[in-house]
Please model this.
Amino acid sequence: MVSFDYTIKDPMGFHARPVGIMVKAASTYKATKVTVNHNDKQADGKRMFAILGLQINQGDTINITVEGENEQELAETIRTIFVSENL
Model:
């Protein structure tokens, strides 16, 4: 299991564009589970509307947990997406 925290810097919060990119990347790893944790709630990292339902805003810190095959690789991919999207 690989886990990391990330603080959202985008004034729009964790919005549809970066969430969609993350979900698309995560969905290619069929045997790997991704979980987005925020304020004692969690969502499947492969379900866009579940993540958007967490209502993650600018300044909020989220925790991403990745479990399964190639978990380290996927965690780094997600972190790279966040940075490249200035999230």
